[in-house]
């Protein structure tokens, strides 16, 4: 399989993931929030703050699609994927994942101070989101290091040929 084909497949997967994330945060989350608000009027006051929180959490995820697309595009390009630009891109994705590891618990604290926190969300989901976000960030840090090492080898190889 040629690298252009791999690049196109990865970009298709990324595009599908982007659609999923947009639908999740623009349709599903507000719909579930509306159902909760309508069936539990005592939590109606928390609908807008929770919606804002979910959108703040979505921003780093959505921003990560930009460098991911650029990385996938480089796979099909003449220069290849082992370039210094991709090191920066992987590091940027890592920082965005770390940002979500902070945004989610901050939002949970705000929701808790509003008196709308649910024990399951606070005790189970929040730590899980933090762990997953930190793990994702670490994976992208490692990919940045591997890409950096490979780009150095590639540059040395290109100079000797």
Return the string of H and E elements: HHHH
Secondary structure: number of strands: 0
Question: Percentage of helical residues?
Answer: over 70%
The mean pLDDT is 94
Radius of gyration: 20 Å
Give the number of helices.
Answer: 4
Please report which band the strand proportion falls in: under 5%, 5-15%, 15-25%, 25-35%, 35-45% or over 45%: under 5%
Structural class label: mainly alpha
User: What is the CA–CA distance across the termini?
Assistant: 25 Å
Can you tell me the number of structural domains? 1
Q: What's the main sheet like?
A: none
**Regions with little confidence, pLDDT below 50 for 5+ residues:** none
The geometry reads as elongated
Main traits of this protein?
mainly alpha; elongated; 86% helix; 0% strand; 161 residues
If you had to describe this structure to a student in words, what would you say it looks like?
The mean pLDDT is 94. The chain has helices at residues 3-39, 47-75, 84-114, 119-160. The protein has one domain (3-160). The chain has 161 residues and is mainly α. Helix 1 runs antiparallel to helix 2 and helix 3 (84-114) packs antiparallel against helix 4. It is 86% helix and 0% strand. It starts with a helix and ends with a helix. It is elongated and about 70 Å long. It contains four helices and no strands.
């Amino acid at each position: 399989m040629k690298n252009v084909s791999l690049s196109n497949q990865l970009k298709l997967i990324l595009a599908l993931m982007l659609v999923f994330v947009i639908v999740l945060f623009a349709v599903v989350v507000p719909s579930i929030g509306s159902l909760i608000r309508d069936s539990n009027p005592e939590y109606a006051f928390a609908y807008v703050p929770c919606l804002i929180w979910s959108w703040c959490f979505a921003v780093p995820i959505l921003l990560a699609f930009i460098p991911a697309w650029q990385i996938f595009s480089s796979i099909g390009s003449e220069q290849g994927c082992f370039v210094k630009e991709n090191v920066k891109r992987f590091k940027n994705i890592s920082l965005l994942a770390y940002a979500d590891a902070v945004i989610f618990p901050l939002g949970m604290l705000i929701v808790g101070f509003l008196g709308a926190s649910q024990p399951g969300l606070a005790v189970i989901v929040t730590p899980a989101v933090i762990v997953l976000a930190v793990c994702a960030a670490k994976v992208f840090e490692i990919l940045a290091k591997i890409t950096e090492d490979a780009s150095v080898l590639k540059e040395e190889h290109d100079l000797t040929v």
